[in-house]
Amino acid sequence: MNYEILARWRHGLDRPGWRSFAIAMVALAAALFLALYSGAAAEEGNLLVAGISALAALALAGWVALTIVPVLARRTPLRWLSYQIDYKLTREGMVYLGGIFVVALAALNTGNNLLFMILGCLLGGVLISGLLSRLVLSGIDVRLELPEHIFAGRPVMAIAELHNTKQTMPSFSVSLVSEEKPQAKKRTTAKTTPNILARPIYFPHVPHQQTVRQNVELTFPRRGVYRQDALGLRTKFPFGFLQKTRRVDSEIEALVYPPVQPTEEFYEILPLVSGELESYQRGRGHDLYAIRDYRFNESARHVDWKASARTGTLQVREYAREDERRVMLAFDPYTDSREENFRQAAERFERAVALCAGLAWHFYEINSVLEFRSAGFATPRVTAGEIVYDVLRYLARVAPLKPQPDRSFLDSLSDAPDIFKIVLTSQPRGSIPTHLWSSSYFLFVPSL
């Protein structure tokens, strides 16, 4: 095991860099020796030798600074020096600084060398803590992977990923947290939706040149677009005196669909909708397929009384369905201008959006042929599975619109008289076009 670690270390070793470093150390050691020799020669009165030695020491130091230092700087990953890190003093750090203050007062009052040594060690601990924490937060790439389809109120599993790009140093005790960009913090208006990442994700160890993943459960309370402008890498390593946070810009966006789980309104409306749909389709075209014996619990309206009288037993008509079940789902986003309570109107609009999404999902589950229409958006009449996510994406972003006196969304539905329509609208009953009543089932938003 130790041999494998040593071999991996030797394989990743920067040999030209270490060679340049060794040459620089030898040259600086020679310059130091010449500087000391120059001082000794000056004390003996040999000024010429002292001057030559001093000039040679300066030349060696200058040569190292102009030739070797730039090479080493180019080979050294100094990107971590440019990271913007926010510091926050913890409770433990306050206690530690209080101890430093007490020791400093005691050392100044007594002049005790031991107290000055202890004070230096305490201050060195603060310096080491800041340096190690900056190294821990450097060289880490962040990725937050979200599922393709997200529904409001339903928990989803996301993947948080940290990749440590450092060659030799691992990272310890790092948390992935939600952050905001500086310009976002200066805004006075509150955000309408929370961030995508609601709670920290803790990574105890991120090995060098490796990727660590964690599953995290996320729940989005409402539909809409969620954005995460920035993420933060946070740590208290190594001593917990300071909480350090490195902000990482991100452009993560999540589109959250309305909830599709059945609600009380859905269970109340679905039998009525299904009954109207069955009645409409039954009246518009099923041919007689056969006459057969009556079965228990079948409806009496399909009984063929003439055939029953002729055979002496109950006979029922069996029909052949000409088409698949077809339906148009129409959502009218224009609000009623007489609405006065904005908050209640907004809540009813959200219930209408959720009900529309639930109906679309229901027709998807029963494999219906579905067409969807709304203001500025329409889908073709195809199998519901082909368009259901397009409908949900539209409903995730839809917002109430002000009514337009010169045109009505409901009038645009008259070009499809051959399909049964389920219409969700905020318009009053008296404004519904007469020709739509015979082929539509209306759900009025104010009554939801």
Structural class: alpha+beta
Order of helices and strands: HHHEHHEEEEHEEEEHEHEEHEEEHEE
Write down the overall geometry: elongated
Q: Alpha-carbon distance between the termini? A: 69 Å
Number of strands: 17
> What's the CATH H-level superfamily name of the largest domain?
Immunoglobulins
Strand fraction equals 25-35%
CATH class of the largest domain reads Mainly Beta
User: Whole-number average pLDDT?
Assistant: 79
What's the structural domain tally?
4
Spans where pLDDT lies below 50 across 5 or more residues:
283-287, 320-324
CATH topology of the largest domain: Immunoglobulin-like
Q: Biggest β-sheet, characterized?
A: 6 strands, mixed
- The CATH architecture of the largest domain comes to Sandwich
Alpha-carbon Rg, integer? 38 Å
- How helical, in percent, are the residues? 40-55%
Q: Helical region count? A: 10
Summarize the structure.
By secondary structure, the chain is α+β, with helices and mostly antiparallel strands. It is built from ten helices and 17 strands.
